[in-house]
């Protein structure tokens, strides 16, 4: 079975506080007498379900269009349920029970349950989300050699309440201190997915030259 993991892009969705959002501007309209319907899309590249590439937090990192295309396809995706409350941090200790499994994963999907706040309490979702600690980011770099990306069911790897550690976690994940990068997929809809290893997954960005990150169409098969 296939399942779409990207939220639909539309106006009014929660995002990192202060970031630009999204709007759709009609350009031509059949109803208005034109021969075709067209529109202009105004879209911030970190709006909705999106993938952070190496250049996002590392000035010497490669742009997203330079990332090998195979990096966006996953053949050993692993979904873990690790519940977290608002402002909670994901630590290396959270993976201890799963260490024999996570070492083989090429995509780690972490479901904290925080996705429920996206519709019910969007202000909490934006301002007080969980975070991946810099300690966990370093653990993933040092111990998960097959890992190409991490997917999260909250708005950002960082929490708005602790941006200093969040900045460091981004830098570690995206290759500032290591010879490789682990991409970050944020604001992912994991509702209804079974936990454990899935068959396949993919997160395909817009191929825009020179961009640091991009919204993605993400899906999984299980």
UniProtKB/TrEMBL annotation:
Entry-linked InterPro entries: KFase/CYL, KFase_sf
Lineage top rank: taxon: Bacteria
GO molecular function, one term: arylformamidase activity
Gene3D superfamilies (alphabetical): Putative cyclase
GO terms (BP aspect): L-tryptophan catabolic process to kynurenine
Protein name in UniProt: Cyclase
Organism: [Clostridium] clostridioforme 90A8
């Amino acid at each position: 079975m296939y399942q779409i993991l990207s939220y639909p892009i539309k106006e009014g969705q929660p995002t990192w506080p202060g970031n630009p959002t999204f709007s759709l501007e009609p350009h031509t309209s059949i109803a208005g007498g034109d021969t075709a319907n067209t529109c202009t899309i105004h879209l911030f590249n970190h709006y909705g379900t999106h993938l952070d590439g190496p250049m996002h937090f590392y000035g010497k990192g490669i742009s997203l269009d330079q990332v090998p295309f195979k990096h966006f396809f996953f053949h050993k995706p692993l979904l873990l349920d690790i519940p977290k409350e608002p402002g909670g941090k994901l630590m290396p200790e959270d993976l201890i029970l799963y260490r024999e499994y996570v070492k083989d994963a090429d995509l780690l999907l972490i479901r904290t349950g925080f996705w429920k706040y996206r519709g019910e309490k969007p202000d909490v979702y934006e301002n007080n989300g969980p975070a991946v600690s810099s300690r966990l980011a370093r653990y993933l770099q040092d111990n998960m050699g097959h890992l190409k990306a991490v997917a999260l069911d909250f708005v950002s790897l960082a929490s708005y309440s602790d941006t200093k550690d969040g900045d460091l976690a981004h830098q570690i994940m995206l290759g500032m201190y290591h010879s490789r990068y682990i991409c970050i997929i944020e604001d992912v809809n994991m509702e209804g997915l079974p936990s454990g290893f899935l068959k396949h997954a993919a997160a395909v960005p817009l191929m825009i030259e020179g961009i640091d990150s991009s919204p993605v169409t993400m899906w999984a098969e299980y």
